[in-house]
């Protein structure tokens, strides 16, 4: 099976694309809002109960029933495979509440990564580890924790970040497999109607409110047999074996995409410039796009654009540089830009005002007095569309031929103008 790409591993849009599901979601929205408000009130009581009662099977049962009222249904498969002597559980990561779900089944601790300790860390059910300077330091801390008598098992997510749980698994980090030599894999499946279980770059509070809004979310926890490291296996080899096992159980694909790759992909998506409609007229663009915006475009080579704009300016010296650079950013070709500017000048009617008249008058001033003789053009409006088109085409060809000849005189015929 082919390895999925970034867009298949994560969900970036919350609302469904299917029109039928979107209509059903809109019809359900009034009910969902009322349900969300009610569940927020109940959720406060669930939090208080979980804080007041000591950790025990009775407490987990009560909280699990109350979470069902909140729309979070938990199913457990193969509970007989759970080994109470194993100190590390390894699970795939789908939502920001996976550790809470597993805690409804069995007591365990999940260290909070890359977050300072405090009330929020404690309230969300994470184990405070301070701020370790490296994964090596964190591994040593967890190794000492597991060696303590009576310590609860650790629930670790070697993907270190969430996926949509539909296409593949992120590459497992090796540090969780250096804590102990025996781990127990847990396969987690999350299903809910209408919307995805998790949206990238969404806060945990927003995800919690959407969980309360949706009628139900089903979490299916599957226990797999414990797996021990072979003597010759490194932590990375051991991690790959567990990843393959979980992917096979979940019917997913293992990938080489890491948490860092995901972060870089999200960063690029945030900085993609909005697409400019190619049919937008030059007059509108020049009045709305400022030079500051052009300079901020990280995907354009400013030095190359400036050099090309200088050459165009030598052929059409009266045209503003901002207009030349804007067209070059779209074409990346000197000849094409000169053609576009000449065509725009001919197509724009006189007296339209603003940048349109500026561009038209600039180009006509550049070519006046030296433009090749054109056929006499009637001052009257031609009745035939063919005659009007031929008249316009002749003027454009004459202007373009003059500009091209002037460019070749300056730079020679062997210069490459399109890059």
Automatic annotation (TrEMBL):
Signal peptide interval: none
Single Gene Ontology BP annotation: ERAD pathway
Domain annotation CUE: ranges: 304-348
Major subcellular location class: endoplasmic reticulum
Membrane topology: Peripheral membrane protein
Gene Ontology molecular function: ubiquitin binding
InterPro entries: CUE
Compartments in which it is found: Endoplasmic reticulum membrane; Lipid droplet
Highest taxon listed in the record's lineage: Eukaryota
Keyword Kinase: no
Entry keyword set: Endoplasmic reticulum, Lipid droplet, Membrane, Transmembrane, Transmembrane helix
Tagged with keyword Membrane: yes
Family statement drawn from the similarity comment of this UniProt entry: Belongs to the AUP1 family.
Designated name of the protein: AUP1 lipid droplet regulating VLDL assembly factor
Organism in which the protein naturally occurs: Erpetoichthys calabaricus
């Amino acid at each position: 099976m082919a390895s999925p790409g970034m867009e298949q591993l994560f969900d970036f849009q919350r609302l469904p694309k299917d029109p039928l599901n979107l209509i059903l979601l809109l019809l359900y929205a009034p009910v969902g809002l009322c349900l969300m408000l009610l569940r927020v009130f109940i959720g406060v009581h669930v939090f208080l109960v979980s804080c007041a009662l000591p950790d025990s099977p009775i407490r987990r049962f009560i909280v699990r029933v109350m979470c069902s009222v909140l729309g979070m249904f938990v199913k457990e498969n193969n509970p007989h495979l759970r080994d109470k002597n194993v100190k590390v559980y390894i699970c795939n990561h789908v939502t920001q509440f996976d550790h809470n779900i597993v805690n409804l089944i069995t007591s365990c601790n999940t260290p909070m990564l890359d977050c300072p300790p405090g009330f929020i860390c404690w309230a969300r059910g994470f184990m405070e580890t301070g701020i370790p300077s490296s994964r090596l330091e964190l591994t040593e801390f967890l190794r000492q924790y597991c060696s303590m008598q009576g310590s609860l098992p650790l629930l670790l997510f070697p993907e270190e970040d969430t996926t949509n749980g539909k296409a593949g698994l992120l590459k497992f980090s090796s540090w969780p497999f250096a804590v102990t030599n025996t781990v127990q894999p847990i396969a987690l499946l999350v299903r809910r109607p209408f919307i995805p279980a998790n949206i990238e770059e969404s806060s945990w509070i927003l995800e919690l409110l959407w969980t309360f809004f949706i009628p139900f979310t089903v979490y299916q926890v599957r226990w797999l047999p414990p797996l021990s490291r072979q003597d010759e296996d490194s932590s990375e080899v051991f991690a790959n074996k567990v990843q393959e096992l979980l992917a096979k159980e979940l019917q997913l694909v293992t990938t080489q995409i890491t948490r860092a790759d995901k972060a870089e992909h999200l960063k690029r998506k945030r900085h993609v410039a909005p697409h400019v409609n190619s049919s937008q007229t030059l007059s509108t663009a020049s009045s709305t796009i400022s030079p500051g915006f052009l300079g901020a475009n990280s995907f354009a080579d400013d030095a190359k654009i400036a050099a090309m704009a200088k050459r165009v300016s030598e052929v059409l010296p009266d045209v503003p540089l901002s207009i030349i650079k804007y067209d070059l950013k779209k074409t990346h070709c000197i000849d094409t830009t000169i053609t576009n500017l000449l065509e725009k000048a001919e197509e724009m009617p006189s007296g339209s005002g603003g940048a349109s008249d500026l561009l038209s008058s600039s180009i006509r001033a550049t070519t006046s007095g030296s433009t090749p003789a054109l056929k006499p053009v009637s001052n009257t409006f031609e009745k035939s569309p063919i005659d009007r088109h031929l008249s316009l085409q002749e003027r454009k060809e004459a202007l373009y031929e003059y500009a091209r000849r002037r460019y070749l005189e300056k730079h020679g015929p062997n210069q490459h103008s399109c890059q």
